[in-house]
Amino acid sequence: MTQTPPTREDDQALVDAVLGGVAGAFEQLVRQYQKLCWHVIHRMVRHTEDTQDLCQETFLRVHQYLHQYRNESALKSWVAQVAYSVAKRHLERKRIPIAESSAEGDGLSLLDRITDDFDIEAASIEGQSAGHLHEAIDCLPPLQRTLLTLYHLDELPIADIAVITGLAEGTIKSHLFRARKQLRDTLTESIGVAA
Predict the structure, then answer these.
(1) Are residues 66 and 144 in the same domain?
(2) pLDDT tens digits for 52-110?
(3) Are residues 114 and 146 both part of a single domain?
(4) Do 84 and 122 fall within a single domain?
(5) How far is CA 145 from CA 39, 85, 141, 173, in A?
(6) Which site among 97, 148, 149, 165 is 20 to 30 Å from 157 CA-CA?
(7) pLDDT digits 0-9 by tens, 136-163
């Protein structure tokens, strides 16, 4: 049974209920977005206990700053943006680089020719198991790992990912290109998947 995503009106009604102090409204918001929050943060930090703590911090911040939500983007994107920000700050405090240093400032002229036809799920099916794929994804830097997951597995459009991360769309495309190339290379070496 596929659940239809909430509309902007649904989002605003939930926000209004939380801000209005309606019993159970915040718990509903947490239930609705806890998997997304976990996914974003865990892909960044890769440590279960830290992920649990950071998810709690995320929802505390969501509750604290919900009055700033302007319904300009989906509530899902806004919550994911808070989760991403919390995880990013955590990595910065631990001095863990979130991206390869050479990824910043590259020219984007090549991006106009990049296609998104590399199907991660198909690559894992062609290989022996999804385990190889997840191992390869885990080897990526936190930012690329997160962007790849949001784009290919969560199927968020680049515009939504830009809202979540605060990165320019061209920068996101550049990171996705690098991540896919690294995955292709890794999978080709480990299980012979031709990409």
Answers:
(1) no
(2) 999 999 999 999 999 999 888 889 989 999 999 999 999 888 888 777 644 333 433 33
(3) yes
(4) no
(5) 11, 15, 6, 13
(6) 97
(7) 777 888 888 888 888 887 788 899 899 8
